[in-house]
Amino acid sequence: MLDLSGIEAGYGETQVLYGLNLSAQQGRVLAILGRNGAGKSTTLKTIMGLLPLKSGQITFDGKPMPERPFDVAKTGIAYVPETRDIFPSLSVRENLELAAKRFKGGPGGWTMDRVVDLFPRLGERMDNGGTQLSGGEQQMLAIARALLMNPRLLILDEPTEGLAPIIVKLIHDKLLDLKRAGLSMIIVEQNFGFATSLADDVAVVGKGQVVWTGSAAEIRANEEVQHTWLGV
Amino acid sequence: MDLGFWTLQALNALQLSMLLFLLSIGLTVIFGLMHFVNLAHGSLYALGAYFGASLAATGGYWTGFFLAPVAVMAVGLVLYTLLIRRMRKSGPMAQVLVTFGLIFALLDLTRIVWGDLGLPMNAPEILSGRVAFLGVEYPAYRLFVVALGLGVFAALAYVLSRTQIGAMIRAGVDNDAMAACLGINVERLFFIVFCVGCALAGLAGTVAAPLLSVTPDMGLHILIPTLIVIVVGGLGSLKGAIAGSLIYGFVQTFGAVLAPQLASMLIYGFLAAVLVIKPAGLFPAKG
């Protein structure tokens, strides 16, 4: 579905990715694991067109990925950034409508009502400002907003960061529901247990390259990879 | 100092505020949305005054009033295509230098076309009289400027807070990268905002023309007050632009009559105080 080959990218003069190869399959969940600074978030930002591609190729369904983020969004990729990036000047409803009106009737069939069914808490806070929400509510809003884009691929960067265990459990269960419904996902995550219980496939990134790939069951059994590349 | 004095000065302050608001709203939203510093915004105001005065001389006031903003928008379109679009990624220093240079280029251009002498423009017949208002006789045209500013404020407030394009603009000002990830063409949004900003600068110039004399350097003189307005008000927000304009108008007007010897530095003192207490301005778009 999504293929990255020989990706070199980074922030300005600082190169982070050195010939990274990665592949995400339709209908499956890929977890990208690795230590801080390994290049996980950089990989996601490069996919989204938020960082320029210095060399290498990204293809989505066999077609070259467009360069600009708003074109990437139109190909059917939704992105939940690490910082959630709720628009503070917009209410919860406006944050959601921004995506809902633009991608109405897409293949996922997501509507305002359906995301409120998924996260009832958002329904109670529709008219609140985006930043009046707790961290957990902001994460729900970011995921709901991404779903309203009716994506074919959902990309999540550190969805559990800074959240209370009970919210982590809730986000986990909701993502599991989405997986069962057949949504393709890429998840970057520090929380090893969270990631491997959701993922089908795992790619471990170290020093700007993919250093190991395998199934979630394989990495759970492979203490050497865990120790060397994840410090688990 | 009776009630009439206060009313008169308040109206003067309000009228200055509304002119500044028409100018600063475009500049602040362009800055907030695209982090683009367009110092030549004041020159577009001057062009608006010249276009207005020239058009009014041939076709009457209202011809100038309606067509000058369109003409200024056309100039903005040319500037955008030739210069600004290319400067988008080049950083604030290059943008400041280029648009500062543009001020002088446009200033000389107006000198070549219209000459150095001030150009007159008359208020329309229907607004040339005085109106009794809260115990004072006040020029109808100045009241018209106040009403126009308030009308534009109300219209922009409606668009920004109640429409989808308004939500897109606010989202773009908050976080342009995330807005783009939601499929919003931020560049096209910027272009629309830029055009509207230019038209409003042109409108400000046209309505100011009958109040001031139209001279080549009027764009340069208005630049500093406009920058003070957006810095005091906070970048990128409508609330900031209106608050900053009102503060500037009232501090400047009342300063000039109550403490003439301090008037020229009063607003700078106020600016410094705001920057110390709230470095991002009173109502910045990015909270």
Automatic annotation (TrEMBL), chain A:
GO MF entry, a single one: ATP hydrolysis activity
Keywords assigned by UniProt, alphabetized: Amino-acid transport, ATP-binding, Nucleotide-binding, Transport
GO biological process per UniProt: L-amino acid transport
Domain ABC transporter: 2-232
Keyword field contains ATP-binding: yes
Similarity-based family: Belongs to the ABC transporter superfamily.
Name assigned to this protein: Branched-chain amino acid transport system ATP-binding protein
Originating species: Donghicola tyrosinivorans
Automatic annotation (TrEMBL), chain B:
Transmembrane segments: 16-37, 44-61, 67-84, 96-114, 140-160, 189-212, 218-238, 250-277
Chief localization: membrane
One cellular-component annotation, GO: plasma membrane
Domain of life: Bacteria
Cellular compartments annotated: Cell membrane
BP term (GO), one: amino acid transport
Alphabetical list of CDD domains matching this protein: TM_PBP1_LivH_like (cd06582)
UniProt topology in membrane: Multi-pass membrane protein
Alphabetical list of Pfam families matching this protein: BPD_transp_2
Keyword Transport: yes
Gene Ontology molecular-function annotations: transmembrane transporter activity
UniProt keywords, alphabetically: Amino-acid transport, Cell membrane, Membrane, Transmembrane, Transmembrane helix, Transport
Residues making up the signal peptide according to the UniProt record: none
PANTHER family on file: ABC TRANSPORTER ATP-BINDING PROTEIN, BRANCHED-CHAIN AMINO ACID TRANSPORT SYSTEM PERMEASE PROTEIN LIVH
Family recorded in the similarity comment: Belongs to the binding-protein-dependent transport system permease family. LivHM subfamily.
Name the record gives this protein: Branched-chain amino acid transport system permease protein
Species per Swiss-Prot/TrEMBL record: Donghicola tyrosinivorans
